[in-house]
Amino acid sequence: MKKIFIIIFSIIFSVNATLAASCDQNFYWTLRSWYNRTFNDSYQNYSSVDHWISSYSVDFIEEYDYNNSPNWPIFNWTPWIISKSYIVSGWLSWIFLNSSNYSILYHPPIRSNNNLLVKYNINYYSKNWSSRNWPKAHTECKYYQITWCWDWIKDTSDWESCDNWTSNWTAWNLCNTSCQLITPNCWNWVIEWTEKCDNGSSNGTPWNSCSATCQTNNNNSSWNWLGTTTSGAWEWNVPTNSTNWWNF
Description:
The chain is mostly beta strands.
């Protein structure tokens, strides 16, 4: 179920704002689950005439309740726009809205651009006072995908070096549960990807079936047990090309 919050603020004029059927601009971003985030919006004045922002409203639309709360981010004017008396000069771009903190505690079952929508509805006047009685409206839509490790997409912007979904940290995979590439570590008692066995410090010893490179040693066929010596100690025929020597 979607929950929708509408935040409206007006300086002087009371504006009966209705949700726009479409957006003048669309932007696409990602948000990381289990992180905190604030939102902002910038106003870009592409004309030579100053613009006076009279009011704004923000529609905050969650596909699911990610923050596990009835509360939502609170949006306020930035100190900069207040200091400018809500006027953005010609050919200038600046952040005019900031939000409070928003915690993403859960992720959706499916990652998509519809996971979260923040719609900024802005009413402004041109500083051409002859047209002052005719406010203009501008709507920006920012779509967010909620990302997480194990969503099958490698998010390099979130420092992932791999993401193989449920295969992460399996014996045949080089991706761990934190979506980081694994370098197989023979002798750590964990059978990893290219390894066929791993018996720790016993790898490569005459009495072990796992070689020093964590590959099955064919029951140590290269180590031939000759029996016992006259002193009663075990005797092994060590290959001449071996660099490992044991004294018994």
